[in-house]
Amino acid sequence: MRFFLLMGTLIFISCRPVTELKKDLTTERRLPLPTKGPASTLPSCANFCREHATDLFSNRDGYSYLAFPNFGYRGIGRCRGHALVTQKFSLMGNFRAGETCDLSTSQCLNEIKNKISDVLNFKVRSFTNFKNLYELSSHPELKTYLHTIIKRISHKYPATASPVEDDSYATRELDVFYELKRRVELGQLPYVGVFGKLTGSHALLIYDTGFANKRDVLCVRDPNIVLGRSENCDDYVYVEDNKVYYQRHDRDADYMSFFQLTSDEDKRVVRYQASLKEYCLASAATQGLCQ
User: What's the rounded Cα separation, in Å, for the pair 36 and 53?
Assistant: First the structure.
């Protein structure tokens, strides 16, 4: 078995801010939601939530990203903090229509800030004032609040290489590529550390699988990029000649000489799974989806 652990501290510091917004629109992408049925045909909630815990949210519209790009703070890019805030909201934030509070009042904004804090502490919370994360993080005061939170997230952290299900590929980078594919197909939003000549030391989120230029690809959510429209696998990573490349929509492909899943991601996954299962068990039955 060819598997090894890399001990040490990973540091992501060269995340260059990007401020240009894309204005063109594409068709929104939505995940299919489970359908209701007669009580006699409904699965048990335990079985239902084992399979559909992440399908109950209505925010899967391609705007599950922050409305502002990665930024520098004291000379250091904050791509890790930016990516982790995005990851937590994409998995724990439920954006849906409902009763709203008055955004012009401090009471309303404080309520939303408290929900933001809960999401960042792995608690599922619903937001009814906004359609998605992009809209929420566009609000001036909430944007400032999220900036402050991101600044507090350390860009230095101890970690080891994460185990992968299949380590039989030619390189560790290929092992990770196919492990990311497996995880995203399970409904996860994996965080991966990368390095390339054009990209620098950086952090990316993998949110979907796709097909581009006759290749299977992994769709990327990049802290340096704000599309300003629904994501449609505009940026992605792919394999060529047993090497992993990152293709940003606005630059040449970049060979990833470092492409790593780490143990801190595994710890987050455990907490996400527990929180989503708890939320599902509490809400799926009231929606008539299980019994």
Answer: 15
pTM for the structure as a whole: 0.85
- Helix H, strand E, coil C: the string for 230-243 is CCCCCCEEEEECCE
Residue 154 three-state SS: coil
Cα of 163 vs its chain's centroid, Å: 20
**What are φ and ψ of residue 66, in 5° steps?**
-70, 145
Distance between CA atoms of 119 and 126, rounded to whole angstroms?
9
Per-residue pLDDT reduced to its tens digit, 91-108 = 999 998 888 999 999 999
- Single-letter residue type at 240: E
CA 95 to CA 97: how far, in whole Å? 7
Within 10 angstroms of residue 56's Cβ, the number of other Cβ atoms is: 20
Which residues contact residue 244 at a Cβ distance below 8 angstroms, ignoring those fewer than 6 apart? 173, 174, 176, 177, 237, 238, 255, 256, 259
pLDDT above 90 coverage of the chain, percent: 70
